[in-house]
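Suppose you are handed a protein chain with no further information: no name, no annotation, nothing but its sequence. What can you learn? This example shows the usual starting point.
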Amino acid sequence: MLAVGLTGGIGSGKSAVADLLVARGAVLIDADQVARDVVAPGGPAYQPLIDRFGQGIVASDGTIDRPALAAVAFTDDVARADLNGITHPVIGKAMAEALAAQAQTDRIVIMAIPLLTAAHRETAHLDKVVVVDCPTDIALERLLKQRGMERADAEARIRAQITPEERRKDADFVLDNSGDRAALVAEVDGLWDWLTRA
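A reasonable first move is to predict its three-dimensional structure. Written in structure tokens, the prediction is:
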């Protein structure tokens, strides 16, 4: 098994890259999907989030209203730290279990982790780290057009992240996603060749 951390800022196109890698035969363990699972009703982070942020984050169907949670959790550093303190440990545990299930295979396992840090490389035993990169103005445009986010919310999320320079410094491979779809496919082809050689 080759364990590969895949990261990039919000709007960089991590999901598009992950989908293209899966189409080439990779196994995907997606932190965003795991994060949705752990906050689902009955999930290990569901009640702790309500206890910390209140009933206002609960949608009419009983699920966590993610935009409502984001609105209160991304307002200041303390709230964001509390959100991360509740969700990150249970997300990490679920991802470690999924990775362990692939340990005896010869697969390329992509661990898509938006907030990947140098510590993840050790704790998740990552063999390689790939950063998806694009200029901030392109990422912002994608958030507004593709996700329909409000400009203030999108800008706040971008500001809350580590800088692109910090993200790139621990990368083994930086994938440029500032072009169109054809350019992205070509970039992923190069990445896949590099991963299969590794």
